[in-house]
Amino acid sequence: MICRTWHGCVPVIHAEGFAKHLQLTGIQHSKSIAGNLGAFVRRETQAGYEHFFLATYWENLAAVKAFAGEDYSIAVTYSEDEKFALISDPYVFHHQVESIVGL
Fold first, then answer.
1. Element (H or E) spanning 55, and its range?
2. Pick from 22, 28, 45, 48: CA 20 to 30 A from residue 13's CA?
3. How far is it, in rounded angstroms, from Cα 81 to Cα 85?
4. What distance in Å separates the CA atoms of residue 59 and residue 61, rounded to the nearest whole number?
5. DSSP code for 85
6. Rounded distance between C-alpha atoms, residue 58 and residue 89, angstroms
């Protein structure tokens, strides 16, 4: 299984709005792709910014590419992201994992 990780942050004043936006865009989009096994978000507040760490889980690389395209190491972003002053890491990371285990 492949775990795809992304990080972005927004000013704290946009945190709740971006959380809802992320649910309606990245999370629902990824879950709509065949081969998606789940999506999880962790949030952390630091120095006036809310950081969002998104992990999506995939059956295989073909499923990742169905979501992100051939250049799958580039972050998937959405046009409305700018409304929340999102600072998005431009690259994502992929990890081969055996299972999904909550902490």
1. strand 49-58
2. 28
3. 7
4. 7
5. T
6. 20
